[in-house]
Design brief:
With 79 residues, the protein is an all-alpha fold. The chain has one domain. 68% of the residues lie in helices and 0% in strands. The protein has two helices and no strands. Helix 1 (8-39) crosses helix 2.
Length: 79
């Protein structure tokens, strides 16, 4: 993205989209972990609340991790 195309609002939108994408990547990784656990015949509680809790925790955690440690890449640089 060029600096000319991004305003302050554009930077906020880009940061939100990238944090959302990080959350989705985290969910995909959690699904892969569940699939490996199934393949290894690990006992899993197949109740909705624990599974949704894991999914929400992974999603929010990934978004926060992105915001804290990768968000600095979106700041404007002075020429």
């Amino acid at each position: 993205m060029s600096d000319a195309a991004l305003t302050d609002k554009g930077y906020d939108s880009a940061a939100f989209v990238k944090a959302f994408a990080a959350g989705l990547r985290g969910l995909v990784q959690a699904i892969v972990v569940y699939l490996i656990a199934i393949a290894l015949q690990v006992e899993i509680r197949w109740e909705l609340l624990p599974i949704f809790t894991v999914a929400a925790g992974v999603f929010v955690g990934s978004c926060i991790f992105f915001d804290l440690f990768s968000g600095h890449c979106l700041h404007r640089q002075n020429p």
